[in-house]
Every structure is written in structure tokens, then in C-alpha cells.
């Protein structure tokens, strides 16, 4: 009977006294030790004699990935090439650094991911991974060094350590599958070994807290484009990726409608939002300052023809967060705050859902394609009024 991921997870790292070898299919089998170590083997016959080839360890090499290697090895046999010789040539040691792994992941896999996910990976690679263990081949970084690095982060920010480990394993596993590296001992670590699992976000900011953040964004030394992106997230409740990637062609300034195309929308369908008065003013100011027609709205100060980097807004939020004496918050909390505070003002759920760019639930998703544009506009103006009242109140207190 073929193996399953559930069975392998149940066996891995636990005392085991069953059959030493568990067969899968097509010559693939898993060898399990008494300590729960699992190794992949390929069984074959060479010159009439039975033989086995070790092709990796679980969980560094997942079940699906191990199965994917078998056709290439069988192809070598059909060419009368010894599987061990073929395997050694295929897995010659490479002196690839962690930074090179990040670059490979960025080039070959990152473009396939959603904009928000791209932004998170870019931020993580630029801030944490690329400056780490410079010049040392990733396969030669000892387990103790990885553990020391994660423990240092985990003591202060256990959730952050868990996030970093999951992203690191994704990057290295991708490089292993593409034969860029042979493996890394850090893949043995689990989230609970270095930190904690992420919790579902529940943070809802008070209007005073939101006003503090708004003022801090205003006073920051960030570029105009980056400040604009932060303000769009707060004022419209849009996703960070929607703001950062916004193009002038998406804005109908006459009808005052912003349409996020399906290709950039997380829900997979176009998102139509009205442009309230303050946002209209901000866009007009940005257009007046720009020497270029068209292109990105939130332009990079380095290259105006390009949008801001996906990590820039996260980094700005981190700088502002470090200056303010507030409980932990992140940019995504702005969306939850807008929805919650407007619900307190009796704005209907279907309106706030459209403002957030969510698909309608159940039968409404199929039969109700109304955008509630007028209702959204009223809600946005109400939200702007509440925010500006909080900002003004805070500024008067400081005076």
C-alpha cells in the first residue's frame, strides 16, 4: 500500500519498532530507524543483483518530491547508466550561499505568488536572510549556528521566529528540488522548536491609536509615494499590495472610481471602490508633482517608472511602530479597524465587505454583483470624518 504524508508525520521523530522498510511504489521505499529517522531509498537491480540507492531524508524531502525523482533514476537505468553514478553527478556539492538561494527563489518562484506573499518574502529575505552567514555555503552552516540565531530571535519575538523558519524552509526546499543545494540541517527544525505558531489577527485600533499612527506617518522621513501608500491603506481599507501596485490607469478621476484589476486582486475578481474626497485630493497632489504620465501611483524615489518595493511599507510600519508606545499592530490591522469601527456606526456588512475587497458569501457571490458604490462612498466619508476628528483632537492636546 502506498505511503501517505499523514503516516510519515505520525512516524517521524518518534520511537518505532515496526517494519524497517516501508514500501511506496515504483521502487521507492522509506527506511525507518528505532528513533523515528526516515530515509528515502530507491530499490533497483544492477547486473542481476538487488541494490538500494539512498536519495534523501524526510522531511527535508517530502513524499511528493521523492516520488518525482524516481523517473529520472529509472531513465538512467534504461540508458545502462549506474544509478549511483547518475545520482553523484546530479548532486555534486555546490558552494551556494544563503543569499544565492534567496536570489534563485526570487527569480524562479516569487513571481508565481500573490502580491502580498511576494511582499512578505521580499521583506524577510532583504532584512533577515541575505545579510546572514555571508560567504558561507548554506550546506556548511552548522545546525548549532542556525539554532543560536533562531533562539536569539525567539526569546524576544517567538511568533517572528516561527514565521522566519517557515519562510526559510520554503526557500531552501525549493532550492533542493531544483538541485541548487543538496540539503541543510536547519530543515530538521520545527516551528515549536524555535518560536510559536501564528495567531489569527484580532487587533482593532482605537481612533486615538489610529490618529497617532497617521500623524507618525505624516512626520516620518519616508518618500511621498510611500506616505501615499500608507494613507491609502488607512483611508480605503485596501490591501498593502493593492496600494503599492496601483497604476494611474486604474483610476477614473471623472467618475471617481478606483478599479483594482482581477490580476492584482486577491479575490480573483475586479474590485471597484469610490474615491472619497481626501483620497481624491491626495491623488491630485501626487499627479501634479509627477513629471511622468501614467505608470505607478506610488512611485519609487530611485526609479520613478517603477512601483515601490514590496517590503517598503512593512519597513515603514516597523520604524513608526518602534517610535510609538502602542500595543503591537501591523498594516493589515487597518482593514479590520475600518470594518469594525464602521460597523459600530451601523454601516451594513455587505458595504464594508466591498470596501475591503472581499467576495460576497454564499448565494450572494453568484447572484448579487452590485458594488454598493454610493453606500461605499458615504461610508468612506464617514470614516474620513471620524479619523480627522481624532487627528485634530490629538494635535490640539499636544499644542
Question: Can you describe this structure in just a few lines?
Answer:
By secondary structure, this protein is an alpha+beta fold.
Question: Would you write up a description of this structure?
Answer:
With 399 residues, this protein is α+β, with helices and mostly antiparallel strands. The chain is 50% helix and 9% strand. It is built from 17 helices and seven strands. The chain has helices at residues 5-11, 63-78, 83-90, 98-108, 115-129, 143-156, 158-177, 191-194, 207-219, 224-236, 240-244, 277-289, 312-323, 333-344, 349-356, 364-367, 373-398; strands at residues 21-23, 28-32, 38-46, 49-58, 251-252, 257-260, 271-274. The strands form two sheets. Strands 1-2-3-4 form a four-stranded antiparallel beta sheet. Helix 10 (224-236) packs antiparallel against helix 12 (277-289) and helix 14 runs antiparallel to helix 15. The protein is elongated, with a radius of gyration of 26 Å. The termini are far apart.
Beta-strand proportion:
5-15%
Number of DSSP-assigned strands: 7
Major sheet: arrangement of strands: 1-2-3-4
Q: What global shape is seen? A: elongated
What is the helix content? 40-55%
Task: Report the end-to-end length measured between terminal Cα atoms.
Answer: 75 Å
Structural class call reads alpha+beta
Mean pLDDT: 89
* Uncertain stretches of 5 or more adjacent residues: none
Largest sheet: 4 strands, antiparallel
Radius of gyration: 26 Å
Counted by DSSP, the helix tally is 17
One letter per element, helices H and strands E, the order comes to HEEEEHHHHHHHHHHEEEHHHHHH
Amino acid at each position: 500500500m502506498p505511503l501517505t504524508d499523514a503516516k510519515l508525520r505520525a512516524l517521524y521523530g518518534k520511537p518505532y519498532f515496526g517494519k524497517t522498510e516501508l514500501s511506496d511504489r515504483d521502487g521507492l521505499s522509506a527506511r525507518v530507524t528505532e528513533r523515528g529517522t526516515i530515509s528515502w531509498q530507491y530499490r533497483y537491480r544492477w547486473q542481476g543483483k538487488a541494490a538500494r540507492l539512498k536519495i534523501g531524508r524526510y522531511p527535508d524531502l517530502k513524499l511528493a518530491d521523492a516520488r518525482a525523482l524516481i523517473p529520472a533514476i529509472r531513465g538512467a537505468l534504461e540508458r545502462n547508466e549506474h544509478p549511483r553514478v547518475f545520482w553523484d553527478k546530479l548532486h555534486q556539492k555546490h558552494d551556494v550561499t544563503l543569499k544565492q538561494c534567496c536570489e534563485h527563489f526570487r527569480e524562479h518562484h516569487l513571481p508565481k505568488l500573490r502580491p502580498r506573499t511576494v511582499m512578505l518574502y521580499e521583506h524577510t529575505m532583504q532584512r533577515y536572510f541575505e545579510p546572514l552567514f555571508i560567504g558561507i555555503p548554506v550546506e556548511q552552516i552548522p545546525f548549532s549556528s542556525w539554532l543560536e540565531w533562531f533562539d536569539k530571535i525567539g526569546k524576544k519575538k517567538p511568533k517572528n521566529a516561527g514565521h522566519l523558519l517557515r519562510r526559510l524552509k520554503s526557500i531552501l526546499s525549493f532550492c533542493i528540488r531544483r538541485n541548487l543545494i543538496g540539503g541543510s540541517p536547519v530543515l530538521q527544525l520545527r516551528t515549536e522548536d524555535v518560536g510559536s505558531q501564528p495567531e489569527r489577527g484580532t487587533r482593532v485600533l482605537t481612533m486615538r491609536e489610529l490618529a497617532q499612527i497617521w500623524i507618525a506617518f505624516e512626520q516620518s522621513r519616508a518618500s511621498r509615494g510611500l506616505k501615499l501608500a500608507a494613507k491609502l491603506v488607512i483611508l480605503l481599507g485596501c490591501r498593502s499590495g493593492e496600494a503599492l501596485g496601483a497604476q494611474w490607469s486604474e483610476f477614473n478621476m471623472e467618475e471617481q472610481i478606483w478599479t483594482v484589476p482581477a490580476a492584482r486582486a486577491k479575490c480573483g475578481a475586479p474590485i471597484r471602490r469610490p474615491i472619497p474626497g481626501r483620497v481624491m485630493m491626495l491623488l491630485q497632489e501626487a499627479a501634479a508633482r509627477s513629471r511622468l504620465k501614467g505608470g505607478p501611483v506610488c512611485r519609487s524615489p530611485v526609479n520613478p517608472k517603477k512601483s515601490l518595493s514590496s517590503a517598503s511599507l512593512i519597513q515603514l510600519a516597523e520604524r513608526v511602530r518602534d517610535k510609538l508606545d502602542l500595543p503591537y499592530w501591523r498594516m493589515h490591522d487597518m482593514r479590520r479597524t475600518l470594518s469594525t469601527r464602521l460597523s459600530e456606526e451601523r454601516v451594513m456588512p455587505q458595504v464594508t465587505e466591498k470596501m475591503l475587497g472581499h467576495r460576497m458569501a454564499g448565494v450572494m457571490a453568484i447572484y448579487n454583483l452590485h458594488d454598493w458604490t454610493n453606500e461605499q462612498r458615504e461610508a468612506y466619508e464617514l470614516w474620513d470624518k471620524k479619523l480627522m476628528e481624532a487627528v485634530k483632537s490629538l494635535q490640539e492636546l499636544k499644542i
